[in-house]
Amino acid sequence: MSTQQVSTDKLRNLPESYGKIGWTLLIAGVVLTLLSFAVNSKHASFGLIMTLTFVATIGIGGLFWVGVEYVSSAVWSTALRRPFEFIAGVIPFLIILALPLLFRMKTVFEWTHLSYFKDDPSMLVKAPYLNVTFFVVRTIFVFAIWWLFYYLIVKNSRVQDTTKDQNLTTKNVRLSAGFMPVFAITLTIFSIDWLMSLTPSWFSTIFGVYVFSGAVLSSMAFGTLVIVLLNEKDRFPVKLTPDHYYNLGAFLFAFVVFWAYIGFSQFMLQWYGNLREETLYYIPRMHGSWAVVSIALALVEFLIPFFLLITKPAKMDPKRLVFVSIWLLASHALDIYWMVMPVYNPDKAVFGVSEVAFLVLSVGMIMAVFAYKAKANNMVPIGDPKLQRGLEFHL
Amino acid sequence: MRIPHIILVPNMSKLEKTQSGRKLLYGLTAIFDSPEKLVHAAETVVKEGYKDYDAYSPYPIHGLDTAMKLKRSMIGVVTLVVGLTGGTLLVLFTWWTNSIDYPLFIGGKPLFSWPSYVPLTFEMTVLFGAVSTVTALLVVWLGLPRNSHPLQDTEFMKKVSDDKFGLAIEAKDANFDERQTKYLLEKLGAVEVDPVYYEARELTLKETVLDPKFIGAIVVVAVAVSGATYFGFNKMLLMRPWSSLNEQAKVLPETKSEFYPDGFAMRPPVKGTVARGEMPYRYASNIPGAEKYMKNPILPTKRVMLVGQRDFNIYCSPCHGYFAEGDSRLQGQFPVPPSLHIDSLVTAPDGLYYEVITNGFQGVMPSYARQIPRDERWAIIWYIRALQKAQNPGEVAEAK
Amino acid sequence: MSEVSYGEVIDYTKAPPLVEGNPTLSKIDESIAKPMEKFPSRKYFMALSVTLTMLLIGAVALGYTFYYGIGMWGNNIPVGWAFDITNFVFWIGIGHAGTLISAVLFLFRQRWRTGIARFAEAMTIFAVMCAGLFPLIHLGRPWYAAFVFPLPTQHGVWINWNSPLIWDVFAVSTYFTVSLMFWYIGLIPDLATMRDRTTNKFKKMIYSVLSMGWRFSNKHWQHYEKVYVILAGLATPLVLSVHSIVSFDFAVSILPGWHTTIFPPYFVAGAIFSGFGMVMTALIIVRKVFNLEYIITADHLDKMAKVTLVVSMMVAYAYVLEPFIAWYSGDPVDWFLVLMRATGHYAFGFWVMVSCNVFIPQLLWFRKIRRNIGVLFVISLLINVGMWLERYIIIVTSLYRDFLPSSWHIYVPTLTDFGILIGSFGLFFTLVLLFARTLPVISMSEVKGVTEGAHPSHHLGAEHE
Q1: Which of A77 and A330 is assigned the larger pLDDT?
Q2: Which residues of chain C lie closer than 8 angstroms to B242, CB-CB?
Q3: To the nearest whole angstrom, how far is the Cα of B58 from the nearest Cα of chain C?
Q4: Looking at chain B from residue 289 to 318, which residues have their Cβ under 8 Å from any Cβ of chain A?
Q5: d(Cα C358, Cα A222) in Å, to the nearest integer?
Q6: Which chain A residues are closer than 8 Å to B62 by Cβ?
Q7: Least buried of A52, A302, B354, B398, by fewest C-beta within 10 Å?
Q8: B380 in the same domain as B298
Q9: pLDDT at position C131, please?
Q10: Is residue A241 in some structural domain?
């Protein structure tokens, strides 16, 4: 049986151009964001919330996949773990995106105004949760917890490259197991705070799961994109088989369906219940140009990728995977746009410099951080004891 | 039912050569003791140009499909096509039943409330997809059920169903030669190589569908099922305890109440009460002269006139005639009423008509209070007025 | 060397063996076929008599129900749903673990599932049969059940497509059909093996008919495997949809405690949770009784315990989120219901449920406990209790405090209620015991496929591409 060797010369083989594009986009994004604040600061604040959500969901989704790999003791994905660690590298920078918003909460969050509670005194019960101090504390707590787990897990993984110590895997399995419930709670807090409380009277218990489905889907899409591109250009340190591709494609497919399932459940139950406090979320999204966005979202994030990935050869086809990954990242941006922007303008879908800034800054930030991490670390966890088994993986 | 198999109608000339007695040679079977050897053997056999052969193993072996150069299984197409058809059919069916055939508003939702149908559409897609795939696999792709295959019940089959790996090359293959093929299989590391025969009569077996026994069985089943169904729905459900829902302590129509001395199950309303929606006659009956003070309370709209016409033609016209001229159609079986166009009746107040319809007239005309609701009586009066006006336009105008 | 010592060093470079002791292929056949081939022991008949007694109790209770009507139950207004629907949801949930193990783990290429998949699938089918009974008997007059299907009638009116109960009919019958086919497709090769093993003429006839003349041909295996993947792919979203639709029965209403959007995934997680509890309970017994410890290894149970822990956490997530959102919504009625559950008439049941479903499974964090079969058995039983109670609490507590305090009513189950519940357990375990005697409880062909050396190294095939 031939064992596959890791090509050590390719361990830090990310194309230079990738980093350059990332940095350019990041700088352009920052400039555009500043510009958007100059044009319309309220609109720009909502745009920044979208950026924060996009970057945070992809980042924490990446860390989730790393954790899942350890907890489930999966082997096929061991060689692919590093890109997800790099994606999670944006976690420490989330606070930078959040800071300007924490100072401008009154422009986006209706509940920061006393008049909100005056208009509807029954909402006063929320005041102990929805108040500025607690909000800031929670945000910092959530980002700190994510950063802590990111730091611990990734450090162990990196140290293992040189020590090849199997105990580090055991250590990370335990850390990841502990991370899972923490992840569920913190992501829910994040989604309730930053997205659900934009419509403060509205509530939905499934909302955290909805954001989760988008997070894991988009981070998987980004990971797949990078891995397939590198492997196809022969820059990945190990040779991946179509079976690896199949698994990536299958995960994308599964989470496309999962996202649709969660999204539909939330919509159907609130539509069926037809209660004023629940439908107020869907009514603006079902009228005027927002209705077009809603229908487009169902098509773009579910129906089209569903049929693009349904067959086995499609899941193994690198071209198809690259296309669908980009498609899904775009649809995740659309999903966030659909969640956030109807609050800014319930009457019609808006598109301005803030939206452009959102797209450019998000992509730039993720790419730049990825390039930075890929320069400093090996693209494959060469010290991982499961690596060899992972390379021999076949369906 | 036996499905005819191409496999059983082989190249006859070749078969007859290898015939020994009444038995025909099916082919050569080889047993291997490891999966590696089987994969290797399959590869070699393909290279040697054999087509009618197959590998046999107690479990599917990785790499054997590539070794045998099998084409990708396309059975998934069945799932997709039939599944989507099932889902589409459900959508069409829900739309037709709830929006077209018997429109039904439920919970203030639109007639075609698609979010409600999504779960069902999904279920039907899966049901159609799964059932069609399994049926297609068994019947079309694998040609099952088939217990008469020459390999059934051979030592070879017993071994591959347990722990050995087998390869069988059929005699109908163009390259088949009993000695050479045997040599090839032995060279490939076969532990045993054995010929397999089958009886010639299997080639000429007739279709069993027309077998009297089979038809008899079908008839018996049909009679039993229809009999049971008839008994179940027409007899059993009318017996106890199935009928217990019908056996309730209540008085059915046309039966006598045992409870009340007067034999009526329905009680008259309490004195002085008025049922909801009912307006009593303003004056208790038989107060002479009351009719002078009664006015027609409803307006002569088109609808009212149509109702009046309908009721007049039903209740009044048999005696009074369609135009209230007193021309009874009853051939003198009842007293013939006067025309309603005589002066005293044209000028009579509405209240008089109402009084007469409600209470009857001097024992000649019966009361219609039970048949005609209050408002419809007034509608009839409007209609009578219209008839009168049509006969004597000027006089009616003057009377007003 | 790391400075931290973990007592036990796990070697990640090697995959743990899926079948212990590396038995030969025919040894696998032999031990799996053993319960079918030899005359059952006295233990078996004792077990069967117990389950048949339970079944008889259920039959008597059902007879009472049908003769006198469902007034024999404790149901009242407003508690119109009680034991019946609780049992329905409970049994449907039990079924879900089977599909999860057989289909979802199959798609995830978790080869450890082979030892337990067949048994879990059989449990699915039996559990769905038990579940299907309850809506039927809740009709009071089950012989009119055909009206739940869209049949043309004299009235001209069709069924109400907007009703989640109709969705249930479609979902559960689809689920049953697909599970049955999935199970049967998996059984065909094993039935063929039994056909070739058995010497009894009568048995041989039955196995021949059931195996349809399967002959282990690779040209067949190829399509067979494809169909297996397709069915697994269909069964996976199906299993999610079935319990989601069961949850819609509650969630589309606007009753506090029922109308909450997390219900679909929460019910699915709960279903898998209870199902794993039941599968563990049954497997621990089966491997002991039929000496299958080397196929259903401690590793299997360990892995199942881990899955159980994960789904327990998902259930806990819903337990936390529901009260939180009830409070956050600012709806006093929702919040009142949360208090009613935790402190009202059924508070004891509520806390037993929380303990069994959330607190006790936390023990599964420890490897020692996951490896201790006795403790695992007790935990799995407690999970069954907890998950039954969960459905009971959800249904009864939301109903017994109606919107108007004048309509409030306590629900007390009657003996008939308990009789039917016991009967459903009797039916389930009778079927399980009969299954263990008549069909291979473990998939022979799949277990053979995961023994060491079962497959040639895959590079061999690739050379010739």
Answers
A1: A330
A2: 141, 143
A3: 6
A4: none
A5: 35
A6: 394
A7: B398
A8: yes
A9: 93
A10: yes
How does pLDDT run across C144-166, given as a tens digit for each residue?
Answer: 888 888 888 888 889 999 999 99
Q: Record the tokens describing residue A200, joined without a space.
A: 């403060």
| pLDDT tens digits, one per residue of C29-45 | 777 777 777 787 788 88
Share of chain B above pLDDT 90, in %: 22
- Specify if B266 maps to a domain: no
Q: Assess if residue B283 is contained within a domain.
A: no
pLDDT tens for each residue of B94-122: 999 999 999 888 888 889 999 999 999 99
Separation of alpha carbons B48 and C73, rounded Å: 75
Provide the pLDDT for residue C461.
Answer: 38
Residues B226 and B91 placed together within one structural domain of the fold = no
Q: How far apart are CA A212 and CA C93, in angstroms?
A: 24
Of C258, C33, C291, the C-alpha closest to C164 is C258
Q: What does DSSP say about strands B192-199 and B165-170: parallel, antiparallel, or unpaired? A: unpaired
Domain count, chain B: 3
Contact residues on chain C for B94, CB-CB shorter than 8 A: 161
Name the neighbours of A, counting chains with at least 3 Cβ pairs within 8 A.
B, C
The pLDDT of residue C292 is above 80: no
Are the C-beta atoms of residues C455 and C25 closer than 8 Å to each other?
A: no
- The secondary element (H helix, E strand) that includes residue B26 is strand B23-32
Number of domains in chain A: 1
DSSP state of A385: T
C230–B contact, CB cutoff 8 A? yes
Question: Contacts of residue A180 in chain C, CB cutoff 8 Å?
Answer: 310, 313
A310 touches chain B (CB under 8 A): yes
Distance between CA atoms of B222 and A20, rounded to whole angstroms?
79
Residues B231 and B114 in one domain: no
- Taking CB atoms and an 8 Å limit, are B60 and C461 in contact across chains? no
pLDDT at B9: 40
Please answer yes or no on whether A311 and B76 come within 8 Å at the CB atom.
yes
- The answer to whether residues B96 and B75 belong to one domain is yes
Helix (H, G, I), strand (E, B) or coil at B325: coil
**Token digits for B11?**
């190249």
Q: What is the pLDDT of residue C459?
A: 42
Looking at residue C85, its pLDDT comes to 93
Q: How confident is the model at residue C49 (pLDDT cuts 50, 70, 90)?
A: very high
User: Does residue B364 have a pLDDT over 90?
Assistant: no
Condensed to tens digits (0 to 9), the pLDDT of residues C84-103 reads 999 999 999 998 888 888 88
CB C38 within 8 A of CB C448: no
Q: Do C318 and A122 touch (CB under 8 A)?
A: no
Cβ atoms B343, B385 nearer than 8 A: no
* pLDDT surpassing 80 at residue A2: no
Q: Closest CB to A167: pick one of C4, C318, C321.
A: C4
Q: Is residue B165 domain-shared with residue B219, that is, in the same domain?
A: no
- A-chain residues within 8 Å CB-CB of B116? 268, 272
* pLDDT class of B218 with cuts at 50, 70, 90: very high
Inter-residue contact A368 to A22 (CB < 8 Å): yes
The predicted pLDDT at position C437 comes to: 84
Q: Other CB atoms closer than 10 Å to residue B245's CB: what's the count?
A: 11
Q: Which fold has domain C25-449?
A: Formate dehydrogenase/DMSO reductase fold (1.20.1630)
| Structural domain boundaries enclosing A141 | 11-111+127-381
pLDDT in tens, C332-366: 888 999 998 999 899 999 999 999 999 999 999 98
User: DSSP characters for C172-240?
Assistant: HHHHHHHHHHHHHHHHHHHHHHHHHH---HHHHHHHHHHHTT---BHHHHHHHHHHHHHHHHHHHHHHH
CA pair distance C127, C130, nearest whole angstrom: 5
What ipTM did this prediction achieve? 0.91
The pLDDT, as a whole number, for residue B280 is 67
